[in-house]
Give the backbone structure.
Amino acid sequence: MPMMLLSGCGLLPHTHPEKEITPESSHSIQELCDFPRQFFATRYDANKIEVSVDATKPMTEKISFGNGCSYRTSDQNYLGYVSLLHSADAITSPQQVEHSSRTLTVDGVRVTEIAKPIPDYADPATARPWFELIADIDGWEGKLGFKNGDDQGTQVGARLLVDMIRKLKG
């Protein structure tokens, strides 16, 4: 009777499981949250911007995975968010864009702009879409999301996003 032999590599439990290590930046979550603060203040003419961390980490922790910050006005009007994580931890797949998108290039870096549709309850004559900008540099994925998207916001936001990733990834 013919016998088939199968390799058993990886089937048996390891006595010393290898630990996957997420790269860590030498910069803090506080630096991540501070980076786009002026973008939101200027764009929305808001004197006082409230920033909150989107994870249960202290602002003093180093950037690694699960890093994000949200921005609101003092009257709790939500303006947008920023995130930075190593691509191995990224959830977004650039091929799965369900909304209109376009690609810009900033200093040789591809930045994808995703314009999300205006909700049915909003007046399409006056409402503007929610924009999300995504870029990846050396395995670090950054995102910047903001309401009332337009070309000016995309141009300024894309530059900010590329500068932020370059500064904070290391």
Remarks:
- The helical segments are 29-34, 37-43, 151-168.
- The chain is about 20% helix and 30% strand.
